[in-house]
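Action item from last week, closing it out:
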Amino acid sequence: MSDVIQLKAKDFVSNQTVRWCPGCGDYAILKQLQRVLPELGIAKEKIVFISGIGCSSRFPYYMNTYGMHTIHGRAPTLATGLKVTHPDLNVWVITGDGDGLSIGGNHLLHAIRRNVNINILLFNNRIYGLTKGQFSPTSPQGMQTKSSPIGAVSQPLKPLGVAIAAEATFVARTVASNVKHMGQVFKRAAAHQGVSFVEIYQNCVIFNDGAFSHATDRKTKSDNLLELEHGKPMIFGKNHDKGIRINEFEPEIVSLDDVAEEDLLVHNENSRASLAYLLSQMQYPEFPEPIGVFRAVNHPVYEKTLRKQIDDSIVQKGVGDLHALYNSGNTWTVDADGKTVADPIS
Protein backbone atom coordinates (compact mmCIF):
# COMPACT_ATOMS: atom_id res chain seq x y z
CA MET A 1 0.00 0.00 0.00
CA SER A 2 1.41 3.41 -1.00
CA ASP A 3 2.35 5.91 1.69
CA VAL A 4 1.81 8.82 -0.70
CA ILE A 5 -0.93 11.10 0.58
CA GLN A 6 -3.25 12.13 -2.22
CA LEU A 7 -5.42 15.09 -1.34
CA LYS A 8 -7.28 17.72 -3.33
CA ALA A 9 -7.99 21.38 -2.72
CA LYS A 10 -11.53 20.59 -1.57
CA ASP A 11 -10.08 18.43 1.23
CA PHE A 12 -8.75 21.60 2.85
CA VAL A 13 -12.05 23.51 2.67
CA SER A 14 -13.82 23.63 6.03
CA ASN A 15 -17.59 23.64 6.59
CA GLN A 16 -17.50 27.27 7.79
CA THR A 17 -18.98 30.08 5.72
CA VAL A 18 -16.19 32.43 4.63
CA ARG A 19 -16.96 35.88 6.00
CA TRP A 20 -14.82 38.54 4.39
CA CYS A 21 -16.04 41.56 2.49
CA PRO A 22 -16.87 40.87 -1.18
CA GLY A 23 -13.75 41.59 -3.23
CA CYS A 24 -11.32 41.18 -0.31
CA GLY A 25 -7.89 39.91 -1.31
CA ASP A 26 -8.04 37.34 1.49
CA TYR A 27 -10.24 35.11 -0.68
CA ALA A 28 -7.49 34.68 -3.28
CA ILE A 29 -4.90 33.86 -0.61
CA LEU A 30 -7.19 31.27 0.97
CA LYS A 31 -7.99 29.57 -2.33
CA GLN A 32 -4.40 29.48 -3.48
CA LEU A 33 -3.14 27.98 -0.24
CA GLN A 34 -5.87 25.35 -0.43
CA ARG A 35 -4.60 24.48 -3.91
CA VAL A 36 -0.95 24.36 -2.86
CA LEU A 37 -1.26 22.24 0.30
CA PRO A 38 -2.23 19.00 -1.50
CA GLU A 39 1.01 19.23 -3.49
CA LEU A 40 3.04 19.09 -0.27
CA GLY A 41 1.96 15.51 0.43
CA ILE A 42 1.32 16.22 4.12
CA ALA A 43 -1.62 14.74 6.01
CA LYS A 44 -4.20 17.31 7.12
CA GLU A 45 -3.75 16.14 10.71
CA LYS A 46 -0.11 17.29 10.54
CA ILE A 47 -0.94 20.85 9.44
CA VAL A 48 -1.78 23.68 11.84
CA PHE A 49 -2.78 27.29 11.14
CA ILE A 50 -2.29 29.81 13.95
CA SER A 51 -3.55 33.39 13.80
CA GLY A 52 -3.80 36.45 15.99
CA ILE A 53 -6.45 39.16 15.65
CA GLY A 54 -7.67 40.88 12.49
CA CYS A 55 -9.54 40.11 9.28
CA SER A 56 -6.78 37.73 8.14
CA SER A 57 -6.95 35.91 11.47
CA ARG A 58 -10.23 34.21 10.57
CA PHE A 59 -8.12 32.02 8.32
CA PRO A 60 -7.92 28.93 10.60
CA TYR A 61 -11.73 28.58 10.59
CA TYR A 62 -11.74 28.19 6.82
CA MET A 63 -9.03 25.53 6.65
CA ASN A 64 -10.00 21.89 7.22
CA THR A 65 -6.90 21.34 9.36
CA TYR A 66 -6.02 21.92 12.97
CA GLY A 67 -5.87 25.58 13.93
CA MET A 68 -5.77 28.14 16.70
CA HIS A 69 -7.26 31.64 16.74
CA THR A 70 -5.10 33.22 19.42
CA ILE A 71 -4.70 36.70 20.90
CA HIS A 72 -3.46 39.93 19.37
CA GLY A 73 0.09 39.64 18.02
CA ARG A 74 0.97 36.43 19.85
CA ALA A 75 0.56 33.89 17.04
CA PRO A 76 4.36 33.54 16.49
CA THR A 77 4.80 32.73 20.18
CA LEU A 78 2.12 30.02 20.14
CA ALA A 79 3.60 28.67 16.91
CA THR A 80 7.07 28.52 18.48
CA GLY A 81 5.82 26.56 21.48
CA LEU A 82 3.89 24.16 19.27
CA LYS A 83 6.80 23.56 16.93
CA VAL A 84 9.22 22.95 19.81
CA THR A 85 6.95 20.36 21.42
CA HIS A 86 5.69 18.82 18.16
CA PRO A 87 8.42 19.34 15.54
CA ASP A 88 6.69 16.93 13.15
CA LEU A 89 3.85 19.42 12.53
CA ASN A 90 3.67 21.75 9.53
CA VAL A 91 2.91 25.11 11.17
CA TRP A 92 1.63 28.27 9.43
CA VAL A 93 1.23 31.67 11.09
CA ILE A 94 -1.39 33.97 9.56
CA THR A 95 -1.04 37.61 10.53
CA GLY A 96 -1.60 41.12 9.20
CA ASP A 97 0.37 44.35 9.10
CA GLY A 98 -1.41 45.55 12.24
CA ASP A 99 -1.43 42.29 14.19
CA GLY A 100 2.13 41.30 13.28
CA LEU A 101 3.98 44.61 13.26
CA SER A 102 2.38 46.61 16.07
CA ILE A 103 1.47 44.71 19.23
CA GLY A 104 3.01 41.56 17.74
CA GLY A 105 6.26 43.13 16.58
CA ASN A 106 8.30 41.78 19.49
CA HIS A 107 6.96 38.25 19.09
CA LEU A 108 7.45 38.30 15.33
CA LEU A 109 11.09 39.42 15.62
CA HIS A 110 12.04 36.67 18.06
CA ALA A 111 10.37 33.89 16.08
CA ILE A 112 12.32 35.08 13.03
CA ARG A 113 15.71 35.49 14.72
CA ARG A 114 15.41 32.05 16.33
CA ASN A 115 14.81 30.48 12.91
CA VAL A 116 11.88 28.40 14.08
CA ASN A 117 10.74 26.09 11.27
CA ILE A 118 7.39 27.79 10.69
CA ASN A 119 5.81 29.63 7.76
CA ILE A 120 4.69 33.22 8.45
CA LEU A 121 2.27 34.84 5.99
CA LEU A 122 1.81 38.56 6.59
CA PHE A 123 -1.22 40.04 4.80
CA ASN A 124 -0.38 43.69 4.14
CA ASN A 125 -3.21 46.05 3.21
CA ARG A 126 -1.70 49.10 4.93
CA ILE A 127 -4.76 49.64 7.12
CA TYR A 128 -6.59 48.29 10.16
CA GLY A 129 -9.62 46.67 8.55
CA LEU A 130 -11.33 44.78 11.38
CA THR A 131 -11.43 47.87 13.62
CA LYS A 132 -12.74 49.99 10.74
CA GLY A 133 -10.02 51.94 9.03
CA GLN A 134 -7.30 53.28 11.34
CA PHE A 135 -3.75 53.72 10.02
CA SER A 136 -1.43 50.75 10.54
CA PRO A 137 2.37 50.37 10.91
CA THR A 138 2.67 50.11 7.11
CA SER A 139 0.40 53.02 6.17
CA PRO A 140 2.25 55.68 4.12
CA GLN A 141 3.12 58.99 5.70
CA GLY A 142 0.38 61.54 5.12
CA MET A 143 -2.35 58.92 4.74
CA GLN A 144 -5.68 60.20 6.02
CA THR A 145 -7.67 57.69 8.05
CA LYS A 146 -10.17 57.71 10.91
CA SER A 147 -7.31 57.86 13.39
CA SER A 148 -5.16 60.25 11.30
CA PRO A 149 -7.69 62.70 9.78
CA ILE A 150 -4.98 65.20 8.81
CA GLY A 151 -2.44 62.59 7.77
CA ALA A 152 -0.32 59.89 9.41
CA VAL A 153 2.92 61.31 10.79
CA SER A 154 4.84 58.08 11.45
CA GLN A 155 7.31 56.66 8.97
CA PRO A 156 5.91 53.30 7.81
CA LEU A 157 7.62 50.00 8.49
CA LYS A 158 8.80 47.94 5.55
CA PRO A 159 7.87 44.36 6.57
CA LEU A 160 10.59 42.66 4.52
CA GLY A 161 13.22 45.06 5.81
CA VAL A 162 12.20 44.17 9.37
CA ALA A 163 12.38 40.44 8.63
CA ILE A 164 15.75 40.68 6.89
CA ALA A 165 17.21 42.81 9.70
CA ALA A 166 16.14 40.01 12.08
CA GLU A 167 18.12 37.54 9.90
CA ALA A 168 15.14 35.70 8.41
CA THR A 169 16.44 32.76 6.41
CA PHE A 170 13.63 32.88 3.82
CA VAL A 171 12.04 36.15 2.76
CA ALA A 172 9.60 36.69 -0.10
CA ARG A 173 6.88 38.98 -1.39
CA THR A 174 3.91 38.28 -3.62
CA VAL A 175 0.64 39.93 -4.69
CA ALA A 176 -2.76 38.43 -3.88
CA SER A 177 -4.10 39.11 -7.37
CA ASN A 178 -1.21 37.21 -9.00
CA VAL A 179 -2.36 33.75 -7.96
CA LYS A 180 0.17 31.81 -10.04
CA HIS A 181 3.12 33.71 -8.57
CA MET A 182 1.61 33.48 -5.09
CA GLY A 183 1.31 29.70 -5.36
CA GLN A 184 4.95 29.37 -6.40
CA VAL A 185 6.06 31.46 -3.43
CA PHE A 186 3.94 29.42 -1.01
CA LYS A 187 5.52 26.18 -2.25
CA ARG A 188 9.02 27.61 -1.87
CA ALA A 189 8.20 28.82 1.64
CA ALA A 190 6.79 25.44 2.68
CA ALA A 191 9.87 23.61 1.39
CA HIS A 192 12.29 25.83 3.31
CA GLN A 193 13.86 24.43 6.48
CA GLY A 194 13.71 27.27 8.98
CA VAL A 195 11.51 30.33 9.28
CA SER A 196 9.88 31.55 6.09
CA PHE A 197 8.44 35.06 5.98
CA VAL A 198 6.13 36.04 3.11
CA GLU A 199 4.61 39.48 2.69
CA ILE A 200 1.43 39.49 0.58
CA TYR A 201 0.16 42.71 -0.96
CA GLN A 202 -3.58 42.41 -0.30
CA ASN A 203 -6.32 44.89 -1.10
CA CYS A 204 -8.90 46.13 1.44
CA VAL A 205 -11.81 47.21 -0.75
CA ILE A 206 -13.61 48.99 2.08
CA PHE A 207 -11.00 51.07 3.92
CA ASN A 208 -7.98 51.27 1.61
CA ASP A 209 -9.08 50.29 -1.87
CA GLY A 210 -6.38 50.57 -4.51
CA ALA A 211 -3.47 50.66 -2.05
CA PHE A 212 -1.44 48.49 -4.44
CA SER A 213 -3.01 49.46 -7.76
CA HIS A 214 0.51 50.07 -9.12
CA ALA A 215 1.16 46.34 -8.59
CA THR A 216 -2.19 45.06 -9.85
CA ASP A 217 -3.18 47.29 -12.80
CA ARG A 218 -2.64 45.21 -15.94
CA LYS A 219 -1.63 48.25 -17.96
CA THR A 220 1.12 49.46 -15.65
CA LYS A 221 2.21 46.66 -13.28
CA SER A 222 4.99 45.38 -15.58
CA ASP A 223 6.67 48.79 -15.24
CA ASN A 224 6.12 48.92 -11.49
CA LEU A 225 7.15 45.40 -10.45
CA LEU A 226 10.50 43.64 -10.63
CA GLU A 227 10.14 39.86 -10.60
CA LEU A 228 13.21 38.40 -8.93
CA GLU A 229 14.81 35.28 -10.43
CA HIS A 230 17.84 33.65 -8.86
CA GLY A 231 20.96 34.00 -11.00
CA LYS A 232 19.34 36.32 -13.51
CA PRO A 233 19.84 40.05 -14.14
CA MET A 234 17.17 42.38 -12.80
CA ILE A 235 15.15 43.34 -15.88
CA PHE A 236 11.62 44.75 -15.90
CA GLY A 237 9.19 46.74 -17.99
CA LYS A 238 6.45 45.87 -20.44
CA ASN A 239 9.02 45.48 -23.18
CA HIS A 240 11.75 44.10 -20.88
CA ASP A 241 13.80 47.14 -21.78
CA LYS A 242 14.73 48.45 -18.31
CA GLY A 243 17.00 47.14 -15.60
CA ILE A 244 18.55 47.79 -12.19
CA ARG A 245 22.22 48.66 -11.88
CA ILE A 246 24.30 49.53 -8.83
CA ASN A 247 25.93 52.93 -8.96
CA GLU A 248 28.07 53.95 -5.97
CA PHE A 249 26.32 51.42 -3.71
CA GLU A 250 22.88 52.66 -4.71
CA PRO A 251 20.39 51.05 -7.14
CA GLU A 252 19.44 52.98 -10.25
CA ILE A 253 17.10 52.36 -13.17
CA VAL A 254 18.78 52.14 -16.56
CA SER A 255 17.65 51.57 -20.12
CA LEU A 256 18.89 48.48 -21.91
CA ASP A 257 19.34 50.71 -24.95
CA ASP A 258 22.19 52.40 -23.07
CA VAL A 259 23.51 49.68 -20.76
CA ALA A 260 24.57 46.11 -21.53
CA GLU A 261 22.72 43.31 -19.76
CA GLU A 262 25.93 42.06 -18.14
CA ASP A 263 26.23 45.37 -16.29
CA LEU A 264 22.94 44.87 -14.47
CA LEU A 265 22.55 43.69 -10.90
CA VAL A 266 22.17 39.90 -10.79
CA HIS A 267 19.86 38.44 -8.17
CA ASN A 268 21.35 36.01 -5.67
CA GLU A 269 18.94 34.51 -3.12
CA ASN A 270 21.83 32.95 -1.21
CA SER A 271 23.89 36.09 -0.64
CA ARG A 272 24.36 37.85 2.66
CA ALA A 273 21.42 39.87 3.95
CA SER A 274 22.79 43.13 2.50
CA LEU A 275 21.47 42.50 -1.04
CA ALA A 276 18.07 41.39 0.21
CA TYR A 277 17.85 44.45 2.45
CA LEU A 278 18.75 46.75 -0.44
CA LEU A 279 15.94 45.21 -2.48
CA SER A 280 13.49 45.56 0.42
CA GLN A 281 14.06 49.33 0.41
CA MET A 282 13.16 49.74 -3.28
CA GLN A 283 9.66 51.20 -3.33
CA TYR A 284 7.21 52.57 -5.87
CA PRO A 285 7.14 55.18 -7.37
CA GLU A 286 10.92 55.72 -7.25
CA PHE A 287 11.65 52.11 -8.16
CA PRO A 288 9.81 49.03 -9.35
CA GLU A 289 8.92 46.95 -6.30
CA PRO A 290 10.58 43.51 -6.20
CA ILE A 291 8.41 40.42 -5.86
CA GLY A 292 9.56 36.83 -5.45
CA VAL A 293 12.18 35.33 -3.17
CA PHE A 294 14.55 37.93 -1.72
CA ARG A 295 16.61 35.58 0.45
CA ALA A 296 16.89 31.81 0.96
CA VAL A 297 19.77 30.57 3.12
CA ASN A 298 20.37 27.66 5.47
CA HIS A 299 21.00 28.10 9.18
CA PRO A 300 20.47 25.81 12.19
CA VAL A 301 16.78 25.34 12.96
CA TYR A 302 15.74 26.42 16.46
CA GLU A 303 13.73 23.42 17.61
CA LYS A 304 16.35 20.94 16.35
CA THR A 305 19.14 22.79 18.16
CA LEU A 306 17.04 23.01 21.33
CA ARG A 307 16.17 19.31 21.19
CA LYS A 308 19.83 18.39 20.76
CA GLN A 309 20.77 20.53 23.74
CA ILE A 310 18.22 18.70 25.89
CA ASP A 311 19.32 15.27 24.65
CA ASP A 312 22.98 16.08 25.28
CA SER A 313 22.16 17.24 28.83
CA ILE A 314 20.33 13.98 29.53
CA VAL A 315 23.35 12.01 28.34
CA GLN A 316 25.66 14.04 30.58
CA LYS A 317 23.48 14.43 33.68
CA GLY A 318 20.76 11.82 33.38
CA VAL A 319 17.00 12.23 33.27
CA GLY A 320 15.79 15.06 35.48
CA ASP A 321 13.88 14.45 38.71
CA LEU A 322 11.34 17.23 39.29
CA HIS A 323 10.52 16.04 42.84
CA ALA A 324 14.18 16.08 43.80
CA LEU A 325 14.58 19.55 42.32
CA TYR A 326 11.62 20.89 44.30
CA ASN A 327 13.07 19.48 47.51
CA SER A 328 16.66 20.54 46.96
CA GLY A 329 18.32 23.32 48.95
CA ASN A 330 16.51 25.02 51.84
CA THR A 331 12.86 23.97 52.29
CA TRP A 332 10.30 24.40 55.04
CA THR A 333 6.94 23.01 56.12
CA VAL A 334 3.90 24.96 57.32
CA ASP A 335 2.09 22.88 60.01
CA ALA A 336 -1.63 22.85 60.83
CA ASP A 337 -1.25 25.80 63.22
CA GLY A 338 0.38 27.91 60.55
CA LYS A 339 3.82 27.66 62.06
CA THR A 340 6.79 27.39 59.72
CA VAL A 341 9.23 24.63 60.53
CA ALA A 342 12.57 24.40 58.72
CA ASP A 343 13.13 20.99 57.13
CA PRO A 344 16.42 19.21 57.82
CA ILE A 345 18.98 19.67 55.08
CA SER A 346 19.23 16.43 53.19
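Closing note: Residues 9-226+271-303 form a domain with the Rossmann fold fold (CATH 3.40.50.970).
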